[in-house]
Design goal:
By secondary structure, this protein is an alpha+beta fold. The protein has 13 helices and ten strands.
Length: about 325
C-alpha cells in the first residue's frame, strides 16, 4: 500500500475542497496517484448527486458581476439545499468564482460546459455536491450587454443587473440606485408600454374583484372601504378617459363651491391623484413607473432623466428559491 503523506492530502484538499479524511481515503484508493484520487472524489460526488437529484436547491447565493469595461453584466444563482451551506465562506467563494467565469459566456449551457480548474462547471458542481453533501446547481443565469451596465446584490439573496444607453457623469451612483430599485421592488418589465392588452384586461378584472371582496368584509366591520379603481395601467388612460376624468373633477369642484378662477390650481393635483389611483399595476411591475425608493415624490423615469441624455435599456433580477 502506497504511503500517503500529509502534504499530498493537503494538496488534494486544496484542489478539491474535500475534507481531510475524504482526501486521504481517495489517495489510498488511488494508491497515491493524484489524478486518480480526483476521479475517486468525482465519482463520489456523482453518487451523492444521483441520490440527491430530487432535492430542492432553494437556498444558496445570488451573485452579480460586471466586467472591467462596464458594458456586460451577469446575475447567477448558485443553489444549495440549506441556508447553513448557503452562508458558508467556501460556498460563497465558489459562487463568486463562478460569477467571474460566467462573465465570459452568454448562455447557461455555454457556462456549464466551460472549463473550471481542469473540469467543466457542471462537473465541478457534481464534485462539490460530493464534498458538501448537498445538491448544487445553477438555478438562474442572466446576462446584459449595454453601453453601461451596473449591478447590486442584496445580502446574497437577490441580485440585479441593469443596462443604460450611455455612461453619464456620476454613473456609479445612478447605476447602483437603479439596480437597488430593481432588487428591492421586483419590477418585471421596463414600462407599461410592454404590457399586452389581454393581460391588462385580465389583471384589471382580477384586482377589482379582490378589492370588492375585501370591501365586503371591511363594510361588515364598519371600517373604511378601499377605493375601487376603474383602471390599473397608464395604457388604459386614453385621452378620452383623461378628458372625462377632468370633467368629473370640475363637477366635483363646482359641487364643493370652489370658485372657477382657482380650478386651474387644484385640477393638476386631482389629475395626478386620478393617475396614481388608476395605475397600480404599473407602479408594482414597471421599473420606470415605480416610485423611486430614495424619493417617492418622483418615479424612476424622472430620476434617470435627471442624469441627462441616458435611458434604461434592460434589466434582470434573480433570487433564491
Amino acid at each position: 500500500m502506497a504511503k500517503i503523506t500529509a502534504a499530498e492530502v493537503n494538496k488534494l484538499r486544496k484542489a478539491t475542497g474535500a475534507g481531510m479524511m475524504d482526501c486521504k481515503k481517495a489517495l489510498v484508493e488511488a494508491e497515491g496517484d493524484f489524478d486518480k484520487a480526483i476521479d475517486v472524489l468525482r465519482k463520489k460526488g456523482q453518487k451523492v448527486a444521483e441520490k440527491r437529484a430530487d432535492r430542492d436547491s432553494s437556498e444558496g447565493a445570488a451573485i452579480a458581476k460586471v466586467n472591467e469595461e462596464q458594458n456586460k453584466g451577469i446575475a447567477i444563482v448558485l443553489g444549495c439545499e440549506t441556508d447553513f451551506v448557503g452562508k458558508n465562506e467556501n460556498f460563497l467563494a465558489l459562487a463568486n468564482q463562478l460569477g467571474d467565469l460566467a462573465l465570459n459566456y452568454n448562455t447557461k449551457e455555454e457556462f456549464l460546459a466551460a472549463d473550471f480548474e481542469g473540469m467543466t462547471v457542471a462537473e465541478k458542481l457534481v464534485e462539490q455536491t460530493g464534498v458538501i453533501g448537498e445538491k448544487l446547481e445553477i438555478n438562474a443565469f442572466e446576462t446584459i450587454e449595454a453601453p453601461y451596465v451596473s449591478s447590486y446584490v442584496h445580502i446574497n439573496k437577490i441580485a440585479a443587473i441593469v443596462g443604460f444607453s450611455a455612461k453619464p457623469d456620476n454613473a456609479d451612483t445612478l447605476g447602483k440606485d437603479v439596480a437597488m430599485q430593481i432588487a428591492s421592488m421586483g419590477a418585471t418589465t421596463l414600462s407599461y408600454k410592454d404590457f399586452d392588452s389581454a393581460y391588462i384586461a385580465s389583471e384589471t378584472e382580477a384586482r377589482i374583484a379582490v378589492i370588492e371582496k375585501d370591501n365586503i368584509e371591511l363594510g361588515r366591520l364598519g371600517k373604511t372601504l378601499k377605493n375601487v379603481p376603474q383602471y390599473i395601467s397608464m395604457a388604459q388612460l386614453t385621452p378620452e378617459v383623461m378628458a372625462a376624468a377632468e370633467e368629473e373633477a370640475k363637477v366635483q369642484l363646482k359641487a364643493e363651491g370652489k370658485p372657477e378662477q382657482i380650478w386651474d390650481k387644484i385640477l393638476p393635483g386631482k389629475m395626478e391623484r386620478f393617475i396614481s389611483d388608476n395605475t397600480t399595476l404599473d407602479q408594482e411591475q414597471c421599473l420606470l413607473d415605480q416610485n423611486f425608493i430614495k424619493d417617492e415624490k418622483i418615479n424612476v423615469a424622472k430620476y434617470v432623466a435627471s442624469y441627462g441624455n441616458v435611458a434604461v435599456t434592460s434589466f434582470k433580477r434573480v433570487t433564491l428559491g
